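Hey, I was hoping to borrow your eyes for a little while. I'm sending you its amino acid sequence along with the backbone structure tokens. Take your time with it, there's no hurry, and the full record follows here.
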Amino acid sequence: MLSGPQLLADLAWAINSPALASVQTEPLPVEHAVPAEALATEGLVIVPSKIDVDHLVEFFRYQPPRKVGHYFERLMHYWLAHVRGVEIVAASEQIRRGNDTLGEVDFVFRDEAGRLNHLEVAVKFYLYQHDQTILGSHFIGPNLRDTFQRKIDRIEQHQLPISRGPYSGIEIRQAIVKGVVFYESSQFPPSTLPDRMLADHLRGTIIRSSDLDIIRHDAQFRYRVLNKPFWLSAIAEGAGTWNSLSTGEQVVHRIGQSDARFGSPVLLARFQLDGDRVQEADRIFVVDDCWPN
């Protein structure tokens, strides 16, 4: 069973964190539309103290997701159904034409104003590489086939338009895309961001395997290796939990014992002690020196 504190923290992160991208097609006139990046700021934010944690745990009791994207989608489902309380017309609905499956609609729902919405949701983690591209993009996912431009193009050109046939009367089609972009600490961030990427997105740090001494010898911080699907929040904890976190030496040893060091990036949360609380100080992807080659 998933823990209540983890679920609550991840739900709050999914809704309250800044959007990574804004994707909206066929919106209502601006005076009526709710832009994707504003969905979580117009009285729709998560107030953790108002969430029934037992109910949230029960919602995830059966078939808990193992993939980050599926986990995020389930959190969004809970937000729509049990926080906003909107009427969900369809969720994870496959769209077929004859014997062919064309794709899947994340959510069709009727919002608080009675408007029919098609909403696609995604959570993404990209590593910025200033000197090389994959599939024409400098923003590359841990899965090299996943780039920022490729995902946004798919949302705009396939995922949002797919509801036009089976669902009549949709007034708003939009996507909520959350996530983190990781940058090399030794490089300047790009002066121009890709179309649709929002400037106030969450940021993390890339550390190469040859630079792991940065982590190993820094006694100021503690670390946790984040495993899927729990890539969203890093729970703020009491000072008594400080010693349960890994030291830099311990986490570097763990990475060295893992073949992930030579394949997919390893995601870390870096913590610092702030008075009587343990707070997340940074999010780090550790990658091999030759990544993404």
